[in-house]
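Hi team,

Below is the intake form for Nucleotide pyrophosphatase from Mycobacterium asiaticum. Please confirm the fields before the structure is written into the shared record.

FORM ID: S-0412
PROTEIN: Nucleotide pyrophosphatase
ORGANISM: Mycobacterium asiaticum
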Amino acid sequence: MPHSICEVLPSAAALLGVPDAADTLGLTASLGAVDRVVLVLVDGMGWHLLPELADDAPLLASVLAGATGRLRQLSCTFPSTTPTSLVSLGTGVQPGEHGILGFTLNVPGTDRVLSHIRWRDEPPPGEWQPVPTWFERMAHAGVSARALLPQWFIGSGLTEAAYRGAHFVPTPPDEAYAQRLTDDLRAAPGLVYGYTPDLDTAAHVFGVGSAQWHEAAVRIDALLTRLVESLPANAALLVTADHGGLNVPPDARIDLDTDPRLKAGIRVVAGEPRVRYLHTQPGAAADVFATWGELLGGRAHVYTRDEAVASGMFGPMDHRHLPRIGDVVVVCTGESAVLATEHEPPETARLVGFHGAGTDSEMAIPLIELL
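The structure came back. Fields below:
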């Protein structure tokens, strides 16, 4: 079994001398004595995408060839979606424990669907995601932990859930990001965290393998190259991702809102196109489970909530988070996706690339270590 995204920050914290942090990734053995680490998460840079990315990315190509740094495979957590993965990274625990169980979730006791990327104040981040982060743990241990993020991320519910405890540094979009990360790294020992969404955005809007996706790869490789070239002698660069992805062709898309059989008995639709949480009307769960199982056979695995939790896909489950999971859980296989055009913004149906399910192409991510 590959190591997990949950191990990255605890291992980095151990490398920086935080007590009780377990270096399960062996960073101390591979990187030696360093007193500062810059960790960059490249959104959407899945393990299986690296060979194609390398066509436009000399540094990544050198890493993939074994000539530069150290490369190994990790797994993200399920669902393979950005909010879930960022909080798994930040807390070091599985989604069943931290509660960010999908891109969108039903707020229990209401018909409201919370979009984690648009989340501001409600529910309160500390209640919705109660697990301490490794940024908090580092700060409590006296180790500096800074997060350099786009200005509009600062103060959001997701930022607080994933990174609370970090010293937040807003970065304007026109700023030379690599230079700012380097300057912050040189300023003081500790951890500096950076994030770039370009590759994921291009994959969603234009598709994996599109010209725009390859252009994003060029920009990301340039960012990483500048960081490597300017690393001080006592610093290390770690690069990872939150998920991979795949393109979903038009004929592999099912719109639940255009099929009365799929709509019947459903109260709230949450999740995302590759993993759907269906919250049912009272007494309708068994019928919804049977209908979806019959109509989506071969294109998705359909579970009851209890079956999904028992499968271990979410890791250990805090019982407080159970109501956030649908009565019926639909996990797409192959290249399929379940749209919900009456429940989601219209741009969702226009996306080309998707992720969220449990296939290798979505779950496998890299960890790159560079000195």
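SUMMARY LINE: The domain at 5-93+131-247+359-370 is CATH 3.40.720.10 (Alkaline Phosphatase, subunit A).

Thanks, M.
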